[in-house]
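Continuing the series of single-chain predictions for the mutant panel. This is the parent chain; the variants come on the following pages.
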Amino acid sequence: MKNKKMRKMKRRARMLAAAVVTSLLFCSACGETKGDVKGDIKTDVSQNTEEVPEADSKSEITKAALKTKDYPVTGEITGDLAAGINRLGLNIFAGLEAKENQFFSPYSISGALSILDIGAGGTTKEEMEEVLGIDDLSSWNMQMEAFLSKEWSEDTYLLTANSLWANPGSEWAENVETDFFAPALFYYNCEVFEADFKNNLDTVSKQITAWVNKNTDGMIPDYKTASDKNTAMSIINAVFFEGKWEYPFKGKDTQADGSFRNAKGDWERDVPMMKQWNITLGYFENDSFQGVELPYKDSTLVMDILLPKTDNIMDYHNLSLEEQEALWGQFDTVQPKKLDTLMMPAFTMDLSIQGLPEILKDLGMEKAFEPDADLDKIGPERYVTDIAHRAKIEVCEEGTRAAAITEIVTNDACALKPIEVLEFIANSPFVYVIRDTKTGIILFLGQVTTLK
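Parent structure:
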């Protein structure tokens, strides 16, 4: 019975080749899968080394997955979604170097982890949802879908792309189409790509780089995948934001001779500082901080800035999580105030989060990284091996451009099991016997200590 089920799972692994649309990573270190291929593979991205082809909308498996169930939808987004994403962001921020430049997307990280959560169960799921702030995954997914469907203006917009990269040679859960692919495609608009990491890692890596470049509008053109030859699944979330200021700065007012006092207390000279005068913006202050809100044109999006009055960034990092949340919460009721002078630097940052898996483990998401993780809705013995995140921002007189990429790489636990190599080399002293196996009697006993 067990062998029959295993053969069925292996056939499904080959069937997934037809589900490739954009970017799923599944690899197996347990050898290639054998079985009959069902359905034609119309798009094999592993054969194209120059560009990633468009998603195959004719994929029969993809169509079947979308038709497997009528999922509930809602156009409403409650405060639960924001609370979960924001707290995750603050928690991750607290785990980064306090006096170094930092920039990342809590939304992107949360989005990628939410897709992974669809395939999780048991303690793995409980820990993940605790870290993400999810009380009800169905409600959470509906809110994510509503946000992904949000319409934006021409001046200010956020584009989100999700992709799954899959190795068709890996073993998949018996009901992976209905339990994982269907909700991932429906709620997160995931694209799915066949990716032969084991035999064509270089090609697939180039395809991922091209996909990221395309879906970040060229802001991250050189992303290097965190996957390797043993990769079983990779979930990739890409986000691109562009917003024009409601009240743009004037280029002629930007001077390159500004000064900026860094976290070490040293003054940095020749910094381009953007300036405005007599401008009305959302503003608040308390004993320790000033807060200003810069709106983007034709949207509900803004940039909120907190400025410690002591010039010491540790005034923020020394706050508890609850105090940080309360501080950012003051922007919810910020009042317009007329500012005589507004001055801030024009800047560009391109940063990666180092040690994101360790940060998430410290937050309580441990089981997902262990070989016995419960991701059985995706495949047997599946676990997370790495989570990578990179983000870039450009702030200038006209507005802001930003992009982020989050990649979750999973392997099969069998990839951890070493191939057993047995050797017996009798090139040193040894003891030996001659015995009767029927009775167990040792007939002769000896040892060899020299052959001279």
